[in-house]
Amino acid sequence: MSEIMEKFDGGLGLIDIDILLILYRKERISLETRESYESYLKKDFPNEYASFLKYKKMVEKRTPNLKQIYFDWLDGKIDNLDFSLFSYKS
User: Fold this and answer.
1) Residue 13: CA count within 13 A, CB half-sphere
2) Is 29:74 a contact under the CB 8 Å cutoff?
3) pLDDT of residue 7
4) Distance (Å, rounded) from C-alpha 1 to C-alpha 88?
5) CA 43 to CA 86: how far, in whole Å?
6) Span 1-43, pLDDT tens digits
7) How far apart are CA 68 and CA 81, in angstroms?
8) Measured between alpha carbons, how far is 65 from 60 in angstroms, rounded to an integer?
9) Could you tell me which of 39, 37, 42 has the C-alpha nearest to residue 26?
């Protein structure tokens, strides 16, 4: 399996937060890597991707700098990541 393709867990599929965090990590590699992963999701998992887009819009609207918060956590600038920022509930 290529580096852009992530296995779906036990046939249950990735949940929206998984897809979002993978997309953010892919974007840190390059925009091309992110676009390849998005293309893969759109083609092979269109229903899950459509659901994900609604989720992504909602959490990024609620916390506009969410991606930067996640990157700061990955870089060690933030000790604890508040995963409630990624929840469906506000």
Assistant:
1) 12
2) no
3) 47
4) 31
5) 25
6) 344 444 444 444 568 999 999 999 999 999 999 999 999 999 9
7) 11
8) 7
9) 37
Cα separation of 71 and 25, whole Å? 8
The answer to whether residues 72 and 78 touch, using CB atoms and an 8 Å cutoff, is yes
User: Tens digits of per-residue pLDDT, 60-87?
Assistant: 999 999 999 999 999 999 999 998 999 8
Lookup: tokens for 42:
């759109």
Tokens of 66: 């969410």
Cut 0.90: pTM above it: no
Contact 3, 29 (CB under 8 A): no
Measured between alpha carbons, how far is residue 87 from residues 1, 14, 59, 77 in Å?
30, 15, 7, 22
The residue among 65, 5, 81 whose CA lies nearest residue 41 is 5
Dump the DSSP string for 14-28. Answer: --HHHHHHHHHHHHH
Report phi then psi at 46, rounded to 5: -60, -35
